[in-house]
Amino acid sequence: MSVDTKEIEELALLARLHLEPDEVAQLQQDLGAVLDHFKQLESVDTTGVAPMTHPIALELRLRADAVAASLPVSDALRGAAKRDGDLFVVPSIIPGGES
User: Fold this and answer.
1) Which residues neighbour 26 within 8 Å (Cβ) at sequence distance 6 or greater?
2) Model pTM?
3) Is 21 among the domain residues?
4) Count of domains in the chain?
5) In a domain, 27, yes or no
6) What is the mean pLDDT of each successive set of 10 residues along the chain, which is 99 residues long?
7) Is residue 77 part of a domain?
């Protein structure tokens, strides 16, 4: 399955990656190969195969969902580059958005 250059460039933009032209070409080839593998998997008959979360049967040990003391706001925000009162201030990831 082929992936065009524009799709790779859009993905790089969303991932905030700067790619050189040779890297775009390599990613185009690599991503195409991955998509080809998924295409092959679509043809596998999975009738009667139960869904699983892991290839090895595991017993998940879950803790009780109980209210507990949380981290104090001052400790949580101690390393924040920017803050607004009791909130973290983070840069916008949407092009044209405000931070």
Assistant:
1) none
2) 0.49
3) yes
4) 1
5) yes
6) 90 93 94 93 91 83 89 91 92 72
7) no
